[in-house]
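Quick check before the chapter quiz. The format below is the same one you will see on the exam, so make sure you can read both the input and the output lines.
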Amino acid sequence: MDVKDRSVDPAAQQVLLYAQKAGVATAWDRYQALQPLCGFGELGVCCAVCFMGPCRIDPFGEGAQVGVCGANADLIVARNLARAVASGAAAHSDHGREVVGVLREASNDGSASGYSVVNAAKLRTLASEWGIAELGRSAREIAGDLARAMTAEFGQQEGILKPLLRAPEGQRTRWAALGIAPRGIDREIVELLHRSHHGVESEPIALLRAAMRAALADGWGGSMIATDVQDVLFGGPQAIRSRANLGVLEERQVNLLVHGHEPALSEMLVHASRDAEMLALARQAGAEGINIAGICCTANEVLMRQGMPVAGNYLHQELAVLTGAVDLLVVDVQCVMPSLPTIAACHHTRVVATSAKAHIPGAEPIVFEPHRAREIAREIVKRAVEAFTRRDPSRVRIPREKADLVAGFTNENLPHYLGGRFRSGYRPLVDAIAAGRVRGAVAVVGCNTPKITQDRHHLTLVRRLLAEDVLVVQTGCSAIASAKAGLLRPEAALEHAGPGLREVCEAVGIPPVLHVGSCVDNSRILSVCVALVAEGGIGNDLSELPIAAAAPEAMSEKAITIGFYAVASGIFTAFMPVPRVAGSRVVREYLEGTVEQDTGGKFLFTDDVEQAVQGILAHIDRKRKTLKLAPMMYQSGVPVDAGVVPRSLVEYETPRGLESLGCGKAQTRSQAGAPKD
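Here is the expected output.
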């Protein structure tokens, strides 16, 4: 395959050429070697949940139509999908459990671990919500009680999850009527796995509804708890400038790459890299400093709080090592390729695995323990410095590509950036949507997969939506794709946004694509939607808002779980590539059609990014029409009605903090020249 068919990123293309010349197999090569993929598996009609099979249903109706036990294609597809949802929910929610454990550690004497309550205001807000007494108590005492209350949510057997009460009443009423309001996080995952076992649930739709309940336990439970606790422990993010792509690796510095999803150790590594003793050690080794950069969701965590640069998204993990400039790669859980130690053996790079749940043959094990976090972080930095002394400069090939970005928007700070210091709120955005200047908002999330040219679907979808005056919010590897392409800069509004969205971005000084965090921070997007409902004027629950979601390059089971809780929350969701549901008409008709009657949301499964764009725009326009919002001021960039900028936009001062980042009011079109095509 031509490298241009593997990635749209020029930095990735360069490293892929290095890999080909060196004879090193990457994820793309391994994918190619597996061709042709199993057609039964791709349709989802292969069942291996017991040992009587595996059973395959013939999609053409000429062979077997039921498995040994009598399960037909509809049940097999639903069962396989439900198991994927359970796994994805378990992964994200177990992340939440881990950070709650770190909060519990911080509530003790945190001097050895280095952890403490950084965001006391967020702690007290959560304490009030969770019914924790505050008066006359220290932050450590409150944190201890909050950690115990949150831990109980995982094992709770009856009632509903506490964070579910944040949802609008309309959503909660639907969940109760369907019987999918989650009672406890672990309970719903276990029950879903039980129901998908051989000889239990045999009704496909009932199984899909149980999958929605487990997904909601993640989105409104484990993931939401993870985001809240991380803000308490490490600080609430603020808009911050940084850079993205392989060009952030430094030729004359120790390069320590963090990869995975749980930020407890990576935050401590950042602090250790700034320690005077560690910096002196690096200088003694001949380095000019210590550079921490990230891959995947850990990258987003240290980016939005510490401003650390991002080396790349999921499919960049092997490429970063192949530059020869990475001295140590530290990994924890999720999306970590077992191939990394093999790739690292081509160079001097050390790979350190830190999770007791994720053993990687060939990696150096250093199990992370919260009470020893500071000590472990310093040991890892020392190993990175030692590896730097063995780096071969003649084999270092760092692509020059890197792009500026602004990241770190959240449901808590976005009102400030929209409305300024004195009139903070979502009213400017609501007014812009109601007036027809902004069409709506779309959350674009997810991964990379070798099945799709890296980043192509993400970037095509985002650019098409921006041109149609749609505000985009992003998390995870999708956000990193836009970062590498320069779409997270305020100036990107001049280059890519339609005239209405561009005027809004200029007025308040924000990029047209808002980075809101890692994959678990999709819960922030849910919170933004709740806030828009509370603001009033564009819908009374999430299903009425002119919004949508998309996963353009989905790869992991977590992606389908996120899609399920988005749809269960009333959100139209485009999902690419088509998951393994094509073998069941019943499953597809429910998830792409009749589920909307149950939850207010539905899926669009497609392999065509333009079909996804058109589906999203048609959905948003239907919602606008139902709400009787003003017609769009522009159609394909042409004014429909001269109109005026809503007063709530022009009167709000430029948000304090963004000006210092160079993100104040952008140049007008006449000052900047015509935007790029």
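If your answer matched, good. The first helix runs from residue 10 to 22.
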